[in-house]
Design goal:
The protein is α+β, with helices and mostly antiparallel strands. The chain has helices at 11-24, 54-66, 98-114, 140-149, and strands at 2-8, 32-33, 40-48, 71-81, 89-96, 127-132, 157-159, 161-170, 173-183. The chain binds ligand 3AM. Ligand 3AM binds at residues 4, 42, 45, 89, 120-121, 123-125, 129.
């Protein structure tokens, strides 16, 4: 099973970003666009993990969630991973209480390191992935989406839980399933795994 730890977007932000996705899709029709219901903020990517490791991970996430309170985020400004003229990933950056977001992500990464997981990236770049290039060498049309997204305005959203997702690839792209949720600021719970 492939898994990752993330924050979900609320409906208002999801709908608004979904409108932008519909518009941008015409600029980069060959990219793999994220479905609006699947938009999220990745805190840690775990890759392949065994079912047997899920309880320990749940315990770690319960501890982390209990140590952080809810906070507010907003989407602002596009960015990319990969070469500037042939990006591999198009995303929108995040504003709002990014200090709280950074502290939460660092805490998640610390607990994962204690469980033996190696981080997938060195410096956390808070973002919501919108599209990925199909070609491993990137997609020049994703660079054109940066200008097309510009400084579109997005609603603020409250973040009040951390979610453990499993991820599967099907014919239409990625499908995510929430395996467990932990409320920020809540006493550590042990029975959140579905
Ligand atoms: O595709 P999503 O957003 O679910 O965007 C990358 C992907 O998550 C994210 O890690 C996941 C597996 O590659 N990622 C890559 N570099 C990152 C960085 N510097 C990053 N997330 C935060 N900061």
């Amino acid at each position: 099973m492939r898994a990752f730890i993330a924050l979900e977007l609320d409906d208002a932000l999801r709908v608004r970003l979904g409108e932008e996705l519909a518009r941008l899709r015409r600029v980069a029709p060959n990219a793999r666009w994220v479905r609006s219901e699947s938009l999220h903020v990745t805190l840690a990517f775990l890759g392949e993990m065994a079912d047997a490791d899920v309880p320990a991970l749940g315990g770690a996430l319960a501890k982390v969630a209990s140590r952080h309170g809810p906070f507010t985020l907003c989407a602002r400004g596009p960015g990319t991973f990969g070469p500037f003229d042939r990006p591999k990933v198009l995303w929108t950056g995040l504003g709002g209480d990014v200090a709280a977001l950074g502290a939460l992500q660092a805490d998640v990464a610390g607990e994962l390191a204690a469980l033996g997981y190696r981080p997938d990236f060195e410096k956390f770049e808070p973002h919501v992935t919108l599209a990925r290039a199909k070609h491993p060498r990137g997609d020049p049309s994703l660079a054109r989406c940066v200008a097309a997204l510009g400084d579109a305005g997005f609603p603020e959203q409250a973040v009040d839980e951390v979610v453990l997702f499993s991820s599967e690839t099907d014919r239409d792209g990625m499908r995510y399933r929430a395996m467990g949720r932990w409320r920020l600021g809540a006493a550590p719970a042990t029975d959140n795994i579905k």
